Amino acid sequence: MRSPYANQTHSSAWVFQVWASFVISIFATSVGILYLPVDTWTKSFMGMGLAFSVGSTMSLAKTTRDIHESKRLTSRVDEARVEKILSEHHPLK
């Protein structure tokens, strides 16, 4: 029986699309901030907001992935325990 948690890989097209959208969005937002008709302090504030938003998004994504992976490992351990119990169980003994 194949585990539902088989190693999943992403296509190179998907990886390219994810990185391209990330780079384009950061670049476009940065250019937009630079060309805002406001003083330097306001642009700096907007730039810091962008930097913190990107950083917190990456932290959230990593944390979510780590939680998911820890649940997968726990599920595998539980599945192995059940399989061991079932293989040792002999109903006729």
Report on the structure:
This protein is mostly helical and 93 residues long. The protein has one domain. Helix content is 77%, strand content 0%. It contains 2 helices and no strands. It has helices spanning 12-34, 40-88. Helix 1 (12-34) packs antiparallel against helix 2 (40-88). It is elongated, with a radius of gyration of 24 Å. The chain starts with 11 loop residues before the first helix and ends in a 5-residue tail after the last helix. The relative contact order is 0.07. The model has no long low-confidence stretch (mean pLDDT 86).
Topology record:
Blueprint (H helix, E strand, L loop, with lengths): L11 H23 L5 H49 L5
Keywords:
mainly alpha, 93 residues, 0% strand
Could you write a compact summary of the structure shown?
The chain is mainly α. 77% of the residues lie in helices and 0% in strands. It has one domain.
- Helix percent reads over 70%
Query: Helix segment count?
Result: 2
Unreliable stretches (pLDDT < 50, length at least 5) are: none
Class computed from helices, strands and strand pairing = mainly alpha
Instruction: Please state the CA-atom Rg, rounded to the nearest Å.
Output: 24 Å
End-to-end distance: 26 Å
**Strand proportion:** under 5%
For the sheet with most strands, the description reads: none
Number of strands: 0
